[in-house]
What does this fold into?
Amino acid sequence: MSEIAVVGGGAAGMAASLFAARAGASVTLLEHNEKLGKKVYITGKGRCNLTNDCSLDEFLAQVPRNPRFLYSALSFFPPREMMALLESAGCPVTVQRGRRVFPASEKASDVTKALSALLRDAGVRIRLNTQVQSLRQENGRLAGVETGNGFLPADAVILCTGGLSYPSTGSTGDGYRLAAELGHTVLPPSPVLVGLETAEDWPRSLQGLSLKNVTLTLCRGKKVLYSELGEMLFTHFGISGPLALEASCHLPDPPQGASLLLDLKPGLTPAQLDARLLRDFSATGKKQLKSELASLLPVRLAELFPSLCGLPAAVPCNQITGEQRRRLVEVLKGLPLSVRAPRPLAEAVVTRGGVQVREVDPSSMRSKLLPNLYFAGEMLDVDAHTGGFNLQIAWSTGALAGHSAARLSSDPAGAATKEDV
It folds into this structure.
């Protein structure tokens, strides 16, 4: 029986440990925190958006970074199988708006409890409060793991230590150091699924204002990098909310030159919007512009909007010229913002960067540099939009890495297939 050491007890590490054990390996899971799945507890604001009930092609379309690398992992362990796994462990799930999947209880703790029970049933040895210091190499292979509590021999090691986001959960980036020490190229970590700081100050005056059914477009020069309809939020630094977080996945590095356009009325064409303004202004006579705009926009934004168009807020509607009306339409359909920077990694949902995927075999998650080293989860340079996709990447890459490590350690000529599960 092969001995597998899994480093990191988050989503990827729990999946890797379970699938390695189910494939016949003797598994030790090493976690430096006092409990497993600490980051899982806070996902989805404590509700745990654990996956997305979509097809493989739909899933890959939500992965801006190295999507094809995930084809084998998602085929091996797709979202529906993650849902079924939790159901089998006594954690029913529910599908909500956007096909986001949550535990029926909407308690993230129920997901980690279910997975912990599955790990115990599979015979996985769990060592909490255990710090991994290095991985020992002998004769071109890994011999095991050096921990603060001594050396743990292993036939294979799976690194699942996560990235640098949410440092309060114990994310330290140690896995990147361990991978680099073994010769792997580690791309510098950067934040994604994070708010965007704007060069303009006016969004700060709208702090806390949420907009629904607007379209946010990210451009660099004339090239559109991202455009989507949804919700966003003005903050003390700029913008946040689902649209801003997704836009951050497409932000160029460095972000200088990146610009945003906010369509406040995506359901109306410029001609339709102009006709409405003309009709409304004609009917309201001497009513002030800022007051009339409150029929189109939230009050706080309506009061600020004329100044964003270079118009006086108190101008009577019956004095607005055709050129001024066209300016209002132009800005309503494309309110410009400049991106100064993404928010820091500590505020990001996900870390971009990590082990370069061309140094990892996508069919097994095995290192191409060391024959018994595997990677899963945020260790890999892969990230996705919001909606449960990043957690499913962790489950799928972890499952494939665990199964492959068990099979290939016991039979170097073996390969991971669904029939083996």
Observations:
- Confidence is low (pLDDT under 50) at residues 413-421.
- The chain has two domains: 3-190+351-420, 195-343.
